[in-house]
Amino acid sequence: MTEQLPIKFLEHLQLQNVGINVANIGFSSLTMESDKFICVREKVNDTAFVIMIDMTDPNNPIKRPITADSAIMNPASKVIALKAGKTLQIFNIELRSRMKTYNMAEDCIFWKWVSVNTIGIVTETSVYHWTMESDSHPVKMFDRHQSLQGCQIINYRTDESLQWLLVIGIQAQEGRVVGRMQLYSIERKVSQPIEGHAAAFTQFKL
User: Fold this and answer.
1) From which residue to which does the signal peptide run (predicted)?
2) Computed from CA positions of residues 44, 95, 32, 106, in that sequence, does the dihedral angle turn out positive or negative?
3) Same domain, yes or no, for 167 and 193?
């Protein structure tokens, strides 16, 4: 009987084959918000570029001269969010138009699309949600727990209803990497610190 593997790995693309420098393939310069797009920041001489790879057409990446500290593609559409210092912007690539812009009071140290129209923003003290809809500004969801102080934030997750929120960080401690998480309930307005390096939400029916 053929052994049933729980996970199957299939290579779709070698980034170097589409012109991505291996030095730019890393946590600080490459983002993949979904299985639809890959976004890479690179610098050639004195010019900064953002390269967007559509996984339905990976051999024809889109390259734009854009200066940004961070770039994240929308998980479903050709919309890109850019961060330069404390300035956040959202652009529609196909229409070549800027949809929204906002200047944060604090530095955004981690951000991520948590749905097709909402970005989660983590600062040194708080967590915000910023929606593409209307002209709304980022809305503060909760304060960071003291257990995350000094941690490098590596992920931010939410459940499908955006009622449970989770910040994930890591920290060097006694020669090992310790994982720390903060779980927050919108309904109860309460946080719970949890030890761990990774987590995910799912829907489960009893």
Assistant:
1) none
2) positive
3) yes
- Torsion angle defined by CA atoms of residues 85, 22, 177 and 86, in that order, rounded to the nearest 10 degrees: 10
Q: How many whole angstroms separate alpha carbon 133 and alpha carbon 139?
A: 13
Distance CA 29, CA 22 (A): 11
pLDDT of residue 98: 93
The reply to whether 62 and 164 lie within a common domain is no
Q: What is the DSSP string of 111-125?
A: EEESSSSEEEEE-SS
Please state, in angstroms and rounded to a whole number, the distance separating the CA atoms of residues 165 and 143: 12
Nearest residue to 83 (alpha-carbon basis) of 117, 25, 39: 39
Q: How far is CA 30 from CA 22, 107, 108, 163, in A?
A: 11, 20, 17, 28
Residue 104: give the domain boundaries.
7-143
The tokens for 125 are 């003290």
- Quickly count: other Cβ atoms within 10 Å of residue 82's Cβ: 21
pLDDT band at 2 (very low <50, low <70, confident <90, very high): low
Judge if 135 and 157 occupy the same domain: no
Q: Is residue 105 a part of any domain in this protein? A: yes
**pLDDT of 67 over the 90 cut:** no
Quick one: 191 and 161 in the same domain?
yes
The phi, psi pair for 23, rounded to 5°, reads -65, -20
Q: Which residues of 36-63 are buried (b: 16+ CB within 10 A; e: fewer)?
A: bbbbbbbeeeeebbbbbbbeeeeeebee
